[in-house]
User: Fold these one by one.
Assistant:
Number 1:
Amino acid sequence: MKLAKGFLTVLLAAKVLLAGAIVGVRVLAEETALEGVFAAAVKRAGPSVVSITVEWNPGKKFVPPAPGRPGFERGTGPVAGVIISPDGLIVTSDFNVNADAKRVMVKLGDSREFEAKLLGRDVSRGLQLLQIDAKGLPVPPFAEDSRIRVGRWALVCGVGETPADPSLSVGIVSATDRLQGRAIQIDASTNPSNYGGPLVDIEGRVMGIVTPLTPAGTGGGVMLSDSGVGFAVPVSDVLEHLAKLKAGETIRSAFLGIRFDTRTMSGGAKVVEVLKDTGAAAAGIRPGDLIVEFNGEPIQTSFKLLHAIGRCRVDDVVKFTVVRDGKRIERTATMGARPESTP
Amino acid sequence: MKRQMVGQSVMGMLILGCLAGSAGPVQAQEAFQKAIRVASPSVVSIVSVARGLFTQERQVLVGSGVVLADDGYVVTCASTLGESPRPTVMLGDGSMIPARVVSTDAKADLAMLRVKRDGLHPIAVSAGKLPGVGQWVVIIGNPFGLARTRTDPLSASVGVVSAVRPVHAQGFGYTDPVILTDVTLNPGSSGGAVVDLEGRLLGISSCVLTSKSTNTELSFAVPVSAAMKLLEEARLAETRKTEPVPTPPKMPEGGYLGAYILDESTGTKGGYIQKVVPDSPADKAGLAEGDLVTAVNGTRISSGRELVQQLDRLGVGSRVEFTVLRNKTELKISTTLTAAPRPVLK
């Protein structure tokens, strides 16, 4: 405390007397102290955070209760979104904004306001793509997947007082490849006010988009808000499916229709059962087959394959290499939808 | 005046320099990563199957545990086990090993498990005093059982020590100070490791409890000393268990012949058969009243008592050959001893 007081005096004195020295002190402070770096990261990503307000269609404001969660009233915002292309594409969480909305307004950091058009929705990741009629928007720097590692700082931006001044919650990356390989897990606070906002690293690069997912890997995990367990969809995954979303498609999680032997821990994934009328059955995969490769990626365990399939979407065409009676066989399957399809 | 100010600003620079060395964000991030890398091979997931209290419904409980010794001792939070006598420990390499509850500390809500596996990675333990308020902590565990498949890694969180004090909460009887942190614990985190930035164990994440005084949820860890004490107790319990307990040798059930033998210690050259029980092995083999048994399986006997002693050594199913003198003729009579007929109440 005494030290801090002394430090303040120093700053004050320096302010009065030595303009040169004060610049030096300030720069040093911003480069080194934790707060300064957090602020710098937010400053870098901040201009790409937008604030969204929603007007719901009549009768759509209240969401009835569903198994595992109570009913709730939808918020009207402002909620967060992230600019991902200079020509007006904005990604947000489908918890906050979706096709039930009557009117969606987007406010930029420079206070301009636009009515947004709803494009595609990725139900499997809880994301909604919006478009506004604007050009030259600030796209944030994106982090490569290899830079997203457990233990790194995880900063979540949400909406603040103004879009230019986003809110911040801080934590670390708790796990990667979570929920069958779909999400980054973080311990920073996530809640409806920052769903749709960016997950930012210490250098201000966007790692992912925060969305509420359940432990089962489906949308609508709002009951985990502020629980110390939050999820973000890797930005690389969003960009990979951008064309489909731009075309207005609804993307759903895939279902292959295979049950595996989960006892073996090496050699490949052993097929125990193939469900009827599924992609796997159509591709001619049979019980007893040993899957050793998936989309060119070697598969040692059924768990690795479950992750690889978990990342897939309906209509994805995937390639298997299967060992049957000692022979390697190539099979191509088209992913179908889960029979008990989640909304 | 001016000189004094310059001096102060130099001091200010020095303070900032110190901050750069200790609390730089990149250094902090690297320290978190190091702690996670060092400690996580020692943190395991624990799955137990319990029956519902009233419904008998099958419940799968997920918790976390920490490897304390390479010969298979794993500490966890006792209440995550439910009533399961055989929890399963899931190691980082995906192997699942059934564990045994060796000892428990009901007050601290800790349980010591043992798995039959050598060469586990025991966690480094922070010896000495309790952590200080404001100290960084890294918590590793399996909240909500998010590490669903056997090869999924566990989750890591960071925070700081909020307080070190005793807590008073329903169902928690540990009266010494515990480590409260600002990390939110969730079902499944219990039993996990709370480590310092060197990856050394400070405490074991406890169950989420609600404070009696403030009605708030508490996230805290039981200090590592309680876990080490339990480890000592468990080792002691195990040594006691492995010492050979002198169990009385099991007496083989004596074989039944079905003949009364004249118990005479002297004066004869063998044992006289006094009476034969009808339908007994003796009867079926043809032993008769008045026979003099002179040898059993080739061993000569000199009295009725010796005959009884010889027969006592033979169990059910033993084949026995008697050398018998009857009317001055030597006979060989063989039979198999049976189990004694149970007395029948009429």
Note: Chain A is about 20% helix and 35% strand.
Number 2:
Amino acid sequence: MTLLLQEPKQSLNLSNLISISDLSKEDMEKILDTAKNFESHTPLDLLKGVILASCFFEPSTRTRLSFETAMLRLGGSCIGFSEVASTSLKKGESFSDTIRVIGSYADLIVLRHPLEGSARLATYLTTKPIINAGDGANQHPTQTLLDLFTIKKCQGKLDGLHIVLAGDLKFGRTVHSLSLALAHYGVRIYFVSPHSLSLPESIQHQLRRKGVKFSFHSSLKEVLPKADILYMTRLQKERFGEISLENSCLLKQEHLKGVKPNLKILHPLPRNEEIERSIDQTPFAGYFQQAADAIVVRMAILALLSGKL
Amino acid sequence: MKEKTLCVSAIKEGTVIDHITAGKGLKIIRLLQLMEKEKKITIGLNLKSSSMGMKDLIKIENTFLTPSDTDHIAIFSPLATVNVIKNYTIANKFSVNMPKKIEKVLLCPNSQCITHAEHTSTLFFIEENNDMIFLSCHFCEKLFSQEEITEV
């Protein structure tokens, strides 16, 4: 049987957070400004009585825990699951039925699912706000918002920066979302990856349409001296099996000679072999600060989508 | 005129879709879901055309298609023309226009798209770039050429 679509509730001004492509620059600025305010002042009871359903059909550590922490810090409560094994999906229940039911229990739903477009579909199944916490290799918009927050925090601005995106650009959804978001800020982007893991044509097409200046490279060394931000990603081994990054796409401490003093290295984590551990001790390492920034950014997203701000 | 009559017989009442890009005729029958409606259909493949070299042609008897019914055709055959026939003469003739979106009748080629697992009707947005036509899936956000897309 075919599920026919009915019009979902209005897809942003912030009713749902599904894809970075749905967000205007004003929407993004609103979230970043709210997060900055929360850094200095957290309204402890803002989400008192509000229930978040944290629905993770795929493994997650940082995203799930940071959403739940953000909810608790604002006085709200959490229900949910972190693996399919503990749900009725094991009994053959469809994703659609699961979301319909959870939508009748909770006030907001954070959703991670291996299939692409799952979060978009969920907006047709419930009137409750849906937050996409990763849909397969497609989008991870809340990671992007916290990436933007950290970049702005460490560089003092977003406009006009030179940004290197490196690693698995084909399957790494954070790179897809981030490059589209950066299109609003007149940045210069350098994509560094093995040829077999280069940026999908659909993302390239969107960047060209938005007038973004970008180029492709096979080695970090070629572009590092120009970079304000180096954004590294890991191989998405769970999506396509065992291959490895070429040496030219792995960051070693020796690569950091001659870089700009303001360079910051970011990574959505978890990290594998792509950043040498000794780099953690250098002033260039920004990835743990980035992970910490997740809390205020996700607090801002929850507060805005719940309609409490 | 005589040659055309010999190739595909005339119909008294109905719709003739002409100037279909050669090789796309069967695809358009599936796209318009004409097979499911028990229509009496005549199809001509690889017919001679003075303007196109070769073309396909479809005649559907006792069915009168409107522009909104046929705009989907433009994705696969942008030069197609639609003739509404009444009493063996052309009562109305129109070109197909590229739609902005297309719902329900196409499958997403991305096997990881949620529309497959949940049997959801699909929605694609049409984008034109340098005379190329691309279809963007509303759900998985992937972009496809018209050659990659298949009908339900």
Note: The two ends of chain B are 36 Å apart (CA to CA).
